[in-house]
Design brief:
By secondary structure, this protein is α/β, with parallel strands linked by helices. It has 17 helices and 21 strands. Helix content is 38%, strand content 19%.
Length: 538
């Protein structure tokens, strides 16, 4: 018996398009002798549909899509597909079993996640009953995503007669996530002596990236089949009916190293954001620094050089090496490159503001004005050419507000938003192993915003290796001042960083979305008030 784990890339809200995709995959797999096709969680609406689920017309269209599948799927093919299902006043996250031109069974997700990026209790009611279906004499129990992380659903399926467990998923990527999934599923398989098929969604959806990596483990918890990560895949799984339905060994994709996985997540997240929103390409400011260099390389890898434009916008404080390195990066990646000085714009603004500024000493205002001149140029190019502006702020800078509203924060997507500064350096070195495109001195020179003479980032911030660790402790782990002191950081560094993180929530609320690669990114992961009196550093 052969089953296909159909790891597909859906579009949230495109119920017709997602249904077309399910039908195309099923007909192709049926022609290849597949007897069952399993799709990810909420395939027909895409995941996460968020408040689209509050719309009655979305649910009506989904129900019509299910009926269309019943009529158009091969009658002798068994298909397991996810969709929202309304019953009376309740709404469920459902896996439907379609065969013989009808919905033969439905399973409702029992464990609804309500943490990190998930808020399923806002929309769904929890199911209570197991669901077991038969194919070729084998009993298959159904579960959905979070169910596999709890004991009751697998136990109930086994008690209901399941010989194999199927788990539909829309599990987003963060660093180290695939190893966690495999360890958990293998443990469940061993404890219940059940082979498990783990079918995951792939693709980018706003800041979330679903990395796929679908896999199957046998009843001993041994991985027998894995699909590639970060791409659509149709992984066949075979059962040896002479050994009580144990999985037969199949193709096992090599696991990705951390930096490769992060790079692929950034590439996929950007590509899908641009393509699913219909932009012809992107434009970004290329400064000669590390952040814009990595952003440019991701953009070129994601979209192709013909869809990327880079703009160098020098000022009197811009070093000649920055201009040279920016041009070298653009040439190495084959993207369009232009050089537009902001000097005349800056002088025009300063002239217009001369009466307002009369008698006032220069301060950070003049630095921010430079950044805003650049933002005006990029947004104008964006409007004229319908290109999305990519911003280039990393997680370390966004954490402490080392960025300018309506300046370098002006744009539609921030590729490296969840990447700490030291990770950005590591990603630059990794990308150069695939083909040299970032000059070595961009990686080795001290980072600078170049908004003032001889300016260095560390004039205003702790060294990035220290800053990144404090940000991780405070933002991702909710560490207290006492815990950070116990970790070996100085009172002054802790107080300065925590104060900056707390004060700059208002900026982050106005920042563009960007790819989430950590356990807790800024955005839907971390919801802090802007106006508040509590301080961790007190």
């Amino acid at each position: 018996m052969k089953i296909c784990m159909a790891q597909i890339n859906t579009v949230v809200g495109d119920i017709t398009g997602n249904t077309d995709r399910v039908l195309a995959v099923c007909h192709a797999q049926h022609a290849d002798g597949i007897q069952m096709v399993v799709f990810p969680e909420l395939t027909l609406t895409g995941y996460p549909p968020e408040d689209l689920l509050l719309r009655g017309d979305v649910l009506r269209r989904t129900e019509a899509a299910v009926q269309r599948l019943c009529h158009e799927l091969p009658a002798d093919l068994l298909v397991v597909v996810g969709y929202p299902k309304a019953r009376g006043d309740a709404l469920f996250n459902t896996a439907g079993v379609i065969t013989d031109q009808q919905v033969a069974a439905e399973y409702d997700k029992q464990c609804l996640p309500n943490y990190q990026v998930f808020d399923e209790k806002r929309y769904f009611d929890a199911g209570t009953e197991p669901c077991v279906v038969s194919l070729g004499g084998v009993q298959f129990g159904l579960t959905i995503c979070e169910d596999i992380w709890h004991e009751a659903p697998a136990e109930a399926a086994k008690a209901a007669g399941a010989q194999v467990l199927i788990n539909l998923n829309a599990s987003p990527f963060h660093r180290g996530k695939q190893a966690e999934r495999i360890a958990r599923v293998a443990d469940v398989a061993k404890r219940h002596t059940l082979p498990i098929l783990y079918v995951n969604q792939v693709g980018g959806q706003d800041e979330l990236v679903f990395d796929g990596g679908s896999f199957a483990v046998d009843a001993r918890g041994e991985v027998c089949v894995t699909a590639e990560s970060f791409e659509e895949a149709f992984a066949p799984v075979a059962f040896d009916m002479e050994t009580d339905g144990l999985l037969m060994p199949g193709t096992v994709a090599a696991p990705m190293e951390d930096l490769e996985a992060v790079w692929q997540a950034l590439v996929l997240g950007l590509r899908d954001y641009i393509n699913k929103n219909g932009f012809p390409g992107v434009v970004l400011g290329l400064s000669g620094g590390i952040d814009s260099a990595v952003t440019l390389a991701v953009a070129a890898d994601a979209l192709g050089s013909d869809r990327v434009e880079a703009v160098m916008m020098p000022f009197r404080y811009t070093a000649s090496m920055s201009i040279e390195d920016a041009e070298a990066e653009a040439q190495a990646l084959g993207v369009r490159f232009s050089n537009i000085s902001i000097e005349p714009l800056y002088e025009s603004f300063m002239g217009a503001l001369s009466a307002e500024f009369d008698g006032l000493a220069p301060n950070i205002t003049e630095e921010n004005l430079q950044a805003r001149c650049r933002g005006v140029l990029l947004m104008s190019i964006s409007n004229k050419k319908n290109l999305l502006v990519l911003t280039t702020g990393n997680k370390s800078e966004l954490a402490v507000g080392y960025s300018t509203l309506y300046g370098d924060m002006a744009g539609g997507f921030d590729v490296i938003k969840d990447c700490p500064k030291m990770l950005v350096y590591a990603l630059a070195r990794y990308r150069n192993t695939l083909g040299e495109c970032i000059p070595d001195r961009v990686i080795t020179r001290p980072p600078s915003a170049e908004l003032a003479p001889d300016q260095k980032d560390e004039d205003s911030l702790p060294p990035y290796d220290v800053l990144d660790q404090i940000v991780e402790l405070y933002v991702e782990q909710d560490a207290s001042r006492e815990q950070m002191l116990a970790a070996g950081f100085s009172e002054d560094d802790i107080a300065r960083v925590v104060r900056l993180v707390d004060l700059n929530e208002y900026k982050r609320r106005q920042a563009p979305v960007g790819v989430r690669i950590s356990r807790r990114g800024f955005g839907r992961d971390r919801r802090y008030p802007i106006t508040w009196a509590w301080r961790a550093s007190a």
